[in-house]
Amino acid sequence: MTTLPAMSAARRRSSGGFWRRTWAMLIKEFIQLKRDRVSFAMIIMIPLVQLLLFGYAINTNPRHLPTAVLLQEQSDLGHSILKAIQNTAYFDVTHIVQDKTEFDHLLASGAVLFAIEIPANFERAVRRGDRPALLVAADATDPVAAGSAMAALGTLVQTALQHDRAVPDGVAPPFEIRTHARYNPAANTSFNIVPGLVGTILTMTMLIFTALSVTREIERGTMESLLAMPITPVEIIAIGIGLFGVPLLGSLLLLALLSTLFITTNLSIGYTFSTIAQNQLQAMQMSMMFFLPNILLSGFMFPFAGMPAWAQWIGEFLPLTHYLRIVRGIMLKGAAIADLRYDTLALAALMLIAMIIAITRFRRTLD
Questions:
Q1: 2-16, 89-103, 147-161, 169-183 — which is least confidently predicted?
Q2: Integer angstrom CA distances of residue 184 from 150, 180, 225, 304, 332
Q3: Phi and psi angles of residue 181, each rounded to the nearest 5 degrees, phi first
Q4: CB 69 within 8 A of CB 85
Q5: Which residues lie closer than 8 Å to 227 by C-beta, 6 or more apart?
Q6: Would you state the pLDDT for residue 158?
Q7: CA–CA dist 30, 215 (Å, integer)
Q8: 168: phi then psi, degrees, rounded to nearest 5
């Protein structure tokens, strides 16, 4: 018959064995992580990146939005309105334009989100009591980014009048503000999200599947199978137009050509990851590490203009940022290649950089 002291000793030995096995397993895992440095870096970097992006870069109430002003007269009231615009937290006057052509081009290209026109003889009409109109055109492709700023325009007028003419509170202003929400006047969020999904789906399929495909073939010792794209950009666009009624105001041919440029960029990045990764798990980790900032910092989920300057700088080096501007510009604004020149050149530059790195590392891998 087993005595109580013997049972206690057996339990202590069992408990001691459990902790020794646990400690040995922990040491083994750390040794494995030391050998697999890519996975170790991903374990640290992914939570850190998520913390920084969600904590500092995401802002659903964007301010300091780029604004163009067409000032067609040099008057005290016009300058007071301009100064009131500059003093608000919502508008950042980045362009003083001279004519309507430049006014429209800046909106179509996405260089500004707002364009304000102070017409000729504006102060004279105010003095005569004609209640002239101050014209405000807003890029409403992203309703979240434009909504709060448009709501602030009413207080802006009163501020300008109090400064310039000492108009008391409660008195109707001697002029009106006419707002025109361009490109998405109904503030339909699907018009903003669906074109963005084109770039998001292409990024996910091209980047992840390419990295996994090439890595798998390297592991097997063969390079015979090629990645078959599961869905084409034209099919995605057709689904968006058919199901959600998203307009296609621009050239389908231009959209197809620039989509090909975007696909090539993501393929090059995927190949680069496949030459760095030692196995498919590492390839997936690196792809997701790159995919996460693309989703959060490109303007797909949150307004690009609402992010701090450092986050916008990072976003400018992400292919999805430029492609979102391209696809939304063509589909919603009817933008031409001249309006999309900056984003096209930026996307081409990113493609060349990624392609050079991919080719260089691929040759080294074969050696």
A1: 2-16
A2: 14, 10, 44, 17, 7
A3: -85, 100
A4: yes
A5: 209, 210, 213, 214, 267
A6: 61
A7: 25
A8: -70, 160
- The pairing of beta strand 114-118 with beta strand 133-139: antiparallel
Backbone angles phi, psi at 115, to 5 degrees: -135, 125
Q: How far apart are CA 306 and CA 302, in angstroms?
A: 8
Q: Any bridge partners for residue 95, and if so which? A: 68
Pairing relationship of beta strands 65-71 and 91-97 according to DSSP bridges = parallel
126 contacts 164 by C-beta, under 8 angstroms: no
| CA–CA distance, 219 with 205 (Å, rounded to integer) | 21
Residue type, position 160, single letter? A
In 3-state terms, what secondary structure has residue 70? Answer: strand
pLDDT tens, position by position, 130-154: 888 888 888 888 777 777 777 777 6
Instruction: Enter the DSSP assignment of 229.
Output: P
Cα–Cα distance measured from residue 334 to residue 337, given in angstroms and rounded to the nearest whole number: 10
pLDDT of residue 225: 47
Instruction: Encode pLDDT of 261-279 as tens digits.
Output: 998 888 888 888 877 777 7
Neighbours of 301 (CB within 10 A): 13
Residue 52: Cβ within 10 Å count: 13
Identify the DSSP state of 171. S
By percentage, how much of the chain surpasses pLDDT 90?
A: 8
Distance CA 192, CA 184 (A): 8
Give strand pairing partners of 93: 67
Question: Which band of pLDDT confidence, cut at 50, 70 and 90, is reported for residue 222?
Answer: very low
- Distance between CA 203 and CA 331 in Å, rounded? 19
User: What is the model's pTM?
Assistant: 0.72
Q: Which two tokens mark 50?
A: 């998520």
For residue 323, is pLDDT > 90?
yes
Instruction: Using a pLDDT cut of 70, give the percent of the chain over it.
Output: 69
Query: Which residues share a beta bridge with 116?
Result: 69, 136
Three-state secondary structure string covering 97-120 = ECCHHHHHHHHHHCCCCEEEEECC
pLDDT digits (tens, 9 = 90+) for 66-94: 888 888 877 777 777 777 777 777 888 88
Report the C-alpha gap between 264 and 13 in whole angstroms. 61
